[in-house]
Amino acid sequence: MFSNNSKGMGKDVDAQPVPKPSPPSIISADLKVIGELYSDGEIQVDGTINGDIRTKTLLVGETASITGEIVAQSVFVHGSINGQIKARDVNLAKTAHVVGDIRHENLSIETGAFLEGQCKRIVENQADGDAKVNVFESDDANRRLAKIKEGGGGDAGTKGSASKPAASDLTVSSKPSGSAA
């Protein structure tokens, strides 16, 4: 009970201090930055930045103006961005004005937001299978369209189905045009 031999009972936890979350770095409305910004935490921009930004979380305020590439995990846009955005989560508020391409996993755009550019969904390869991609969406629509053309009608039971199509779903009629059958 009081021996020096501790076989897994009451082991001390590593004495590493728990990192305290730091407050966001703030670029106020009266500040203009020319150059690149790097942060492991959060950056809040209300001023003007001419340069690239790499951070974990970026909050672009309504008075902000950014010209450059943004790479982050999460980007919340209320102001103006002229450049490419690469982020896992991108949220464009109704006051957002974005001119540039967006590469994202999750994209949210409020009514009234301005976006001029291409949006492309990217999926990180994850070994644990958390990344979910709907690969059946366009194939399912094509199967229903083929059924309608065959005269089978659009079966509402297959909507959103991710099952393997039956052989009858893949068969296309090949009657010669002009023949009466």
Structure in words:
This protein has 181 residues and is mainly beta. The chain has a domain at 25-121. It has two helices and 15 strands. The strands form two sheets. Strands 1, 3, 4, 6, 7, 9, 11, 13 and 15 form a nine-stranded parallel β-sheet that branches. A six-stranded parallel β-sheet has the order 2-5-8-10-12-14, with no helix packed on it. The protein is globular, with a radius of gyration of 26 Å.
Secondary-structure class: mainly beta
> Which bin fits the share of residues in helices?
under 10%
- Shape descriptor: globular
* Distance linking N and C termini: 93 Å
* Helix-strand sequence: EEEEEEEEEEEEEEEHH
Strand content: 25-35%
Number of helices: 2
The main pleated sheet reads as: 9 strands, parallel
Work out the radius of gyration.
26 Å
Low-confidence stretches: 126-138, 154-181
pLDDT averaged over residues: 76
Number of β-strand runs: 15
